[in-house]
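ABC transporter substrate-binding protein (Salipaludibacillus keqinensis), 462 aa
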Amino acid sequence: MRIWKKVLSGAVALSMVGVIAACGDNDNANETPVNDDPANDTENNVDNADNDGADNANNENDGEAEASEDQEEVTLTYARGQDATGATNILVEAFMEENPHITVEFREMPSDTGQSHDQYVTEFSAGDSTIDVFDADVIWPAEFAQGGYVLELDRYIERDGIDMDDYFEGTVDSGNFEGRQWAMPKFTDAGLLFYRSDIVDEAPETWDDLIEMASEYQGEEGTDYGYLMQANQYEGLVVNAVEFIASYGGSVLDEDQNVTVNSPETIAAIEKMIEIVESDITPGNILNFDEPATHTAFLEGQSVFARNWPYMQAMTEDEDQSQVAGNVEFALLPAGDEGSAAGLGGWMSMINRNSEHPEEAWELLKFMTGPEGQKITAIEGGSAPTLRDLYEDEEVRDAAPLFADEEFVNTLENAVPRPVSPIYPQISDLMQIELSRALAGEITAEEAAENMESSIESALAE
């Protein structure tokens, strides 16, 4: 289970908050056709018979230039959050070079995803057509599809022969609602288990192994705790819960939007979460922990194990902020009864239903989420591709040792999405409430599952 121990440079470090990816097929099947009007034929404009060859050659070039000029010039607005890596600029320039009649203007959205979400909803619900293509958190597609904010992509996918099996299954599922595809996977992320390699030789295989090893080794090398996770009442708690639930074979919703959360598997998962939180291996204030609290404590050498996103790897190797540099490895999250499961993170790309240029918007989206675009963003921005084959590309593998690590790719392959629903924000809030009560010892795992079932069913029925 030991994974990668090399230093991952900050320039290509995976970050769930500041990095982005993209690219695609570039057949340009929808470009405006070249003008074939005979009036533009250079052969009709020859004035000097003695210079037929030279004149015709020059006029043919002029005709090509005129044809290019006759293509409709289109300007698209592409919106996404802040990208400190500069990869977005490189990506857009590459697209415009291959599509000279399309100009792409970048609109930077707030770094706070909640604020970005609310701005999109406000504009799209009003029928605003300013934004053509935008990046969406993996938890948004169903909501935006149900709201009528975005274009269905199946006809474009089928027409251009895009094989969705080339993408990691979880990333595709996140953009699928009611059997139709509304978003294309752009880059991905998944939860990992970090551990102190100067304390333990290998990562635990199961959650029970984790509890045992964390209890045995906490206190060594100055550590205070055995395990850190995100247990505060916020979205991170839902991600952690989804990982536990999936590892025990449970789920929250099925593909038909039936509520499946009240099951023996889910109850067993919540019981394991409670056992970990109530044990001595976690801090007494673990119910206040989010991602920053987790990485801060781990970087200070306070814990043997920690669950977090891949972005933390680069931080652990930065000697300016890490007291454990050179002594950290990571692995798949521990397994429950049904194996290991990692919560899916990352971003998708979607098209505004009100875009005045849907064909050109599709070309941009297809480019960003296809092989060429995703390769650009993987190399320049450090974003993990959603296309399996790119992990065999030598340039991608050289850009970050993480991309060459088989265990990491397996983690992405097995990443599970959060419940796909048009009311996901409401479902998340309901789950947070009941899970928090269970972890605080106010209700049992059985009661939490029953309450989630009842409240989610009521929300879906409204």
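The longest helix spans residues 52-70. The radius of gyration is 25 Å. ok done for today
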